[in-house]
Amino acid sequence: MNWKKLILTGMAGSIGLSTPGFAQDDSVLLRPVVPDDFDRGRNESVTERARPDYDPIGINTGSFVLRPRVELGLGYDSNIYLMKENETDAAYAVLSPSIQASSAWSRHALNLTASSNLRRYLGESDRNETTWNLGALGRVDVNNAFSLTGEAQFAKLAENTLSGAIDSQLAAFSRYRRDFYGLRGEYRSGQFRSFVSADRTSFRFSNMTLSDGTGIDQGDRDRDVTRAVGQVEYAFTPSLSIYGQGTYDWTDYDRALLLSGQDNRDSEAFRLIGGFNFDLAGLLRGTLGAGYIRRNFDSPLYNTVSGLSVEARVEMFPSELTTVTLQARRALEDSNINQTTVFFSNSFSARVDHELLRNLILNARSEVEYLDYVGSRRHNWLYRASTGARYLVDNRFSLGLSAQYTSRTTQAGFSSGFQDFRGQLSLIVQK
After folding, report:
1. Which of 124, 152, 275, 369 is exposed most, by the fewest CB atoms within 10 A?
2. What pLDDT shows up at residue 9?
3. 344 burial via Cβ count (<10 Å: 0-12, 13-18, 19+)
């Protein structure tokens, strides 16, 4: 994974043309390892395109460029607790300040970020969210062929209610602390590129208090995940390369036992994946990867789990004004639902970004996800559709409008499905 580009892409999305209101779309706690640097400068997406009359200028301090930003939003959610019956709707307000500092050096790089998100529901304080994130990423260019990249992130987050790791009705109340440290070395020579990286992510979950006053201890979810990754890539042409990647990770839970009294799910896992990385001018770019994942648990209570792993992302360019993005993923995740231990998340999404006017960007996205809980008859289907528009007033101001519909179905005897609609109007002020 190209850590530098991942951070820069994420910050550019938050500052520029992201869909307001739905920042936590990722359904996983741990970031996936997938080569995301397929961009060779042969194509330019709608959201990447420079718009000098509307892009934020930033504050130049000499060595750094500062980019402050504030988003103010008003929205409505038809089912804030994601219930099948007795739905509760509420209006809400959002305040999301952030600042980014990027170095302006000819060699090496340093990026610092700080952001917060305050969401307040009218008359439903139990659903309020206060989250924050601090991040630093630095790259040292040892020579023309070798570089070292280090990263640290510290965040207090609200759990994604669609993650599948716990019931959605509980996830609405779940908050957790995530700390991440990573180091990567990358070597390039001719047609070859390789990297080795190591990272560690710690999760510490806060105890929950439900609307009826019930308290739930989440201490048995606290864990550390240590991961080592190696990848080799060979470019057949400037437009096409092939890669192979190996990942090994260790999951170590703080508590030896679950709240049920069973052994916790300490484990080791490895994944081998390979595929293609391409960037064809005027047509498409992306990464297609597939392989095998296997997880072994320390406790004899849990069987070894293995299966297909997929990471794919393709961007197509039918015209200069339209970008179509397709994504597919199959990954193995931990579960804290009843007696289940892990589940396979199988997802596919399609998104269209269209530049209707130079300063009016439209988008639409559709996603389907199938959650298959290993060793259980339980499974969930998730369907999600969203649309949005961003109107760029000038370099400092923009307006956003977004809407999202979500539906989850599940088989009888397990947690209830639900339907939810959200809409939001946003004002973004930036420098």
Report:
1. 152
2. 33
3. buried
- If one counts every other C-beta atom within 10 angstroms of the C-beta of residue 241, the result is 22
Tell me the CB-side half-sphere exposure of residue 210, using CA atoms within 13 A.
11
What is the rounded average pLDDT of the residues 256-279? 92
Q: How confident is the model at residue 16 (pLDDT cuts 50, 70, 90)?
A: very low
Secondary structure (3-state) at 134: strand
CA distance readout (Å), 341 to 30, 296, 374: 16, 12, 7
State in Å, rounded, how far the first CA of the chain is from the last one: 30
**Which pair of structure tokens corresponds to residue 373?**
């809980």
Q: Model-level pTM?
A: 0.86
Query: With contact defined as beta carbons under 8 Å apart, do 276 and 242 qualify?
Result: yes
Q: How confident is the model at residue 212 (pLDDT cuts 50, 70, 90)?
A: confident
What confidence score (pLDDT) does residue 168 get? 81
The two three-digit tokens of residue 324, written as one number: 């179509």
Q: What is the DSSP pairing of strand 322-334 with strand 342-357?
A: antiparallel
The predicted structure's pLDDT at residue 6 = 34
What contacts 171, CB < 8 A, 6 or more positions away? 82, 159, 160, 161, 162, 163, 165
User: Burial code of 111-138, b = ≥16 C-beta within 10 A, e = fewer?
Assistant: bbbebebebbbeebeebebebebebbbb
Q: Could you tell me the pLDDT band of residue 18, with boundaries at 50, 70 and 90?
A: very low
**What are the sequence ranges of the domains in the chain?**
3-430
- Class of residue 60 by CB neighbours under 10 A (exposed 0-12, middle 13-18, buried 19+): exposed
Residue that has been written with the tokens 């080795």 in this structure? 196
Q: Where are the beta strands (DSSP E) in 298-431?
A: 305-319, 322-334, 342-357, 360-373, 379-392, 397-410, 418-430
Task: Report the alpha-carbon distance of residue 71 to residue 60 in Å, rounded.
Answer: 22
- Nearest alpha-carbon partner for 407 in 384, 431, 377, 376: 384
Token pair of 155 as six digits = 């965040």
Nearest to 253 by CA among 209, 294, 215, 302: 302
The residues, any chain, with a CB within 8 Å of residue 228's CB and separated by 6 or more, are: 196, 197, 198, 247, 248, 249
Q: Where are the alpha helices (DSSP H) in 16-73?
A: none
Fold exhibited by the domain 3-430: Porin (2.40.160)
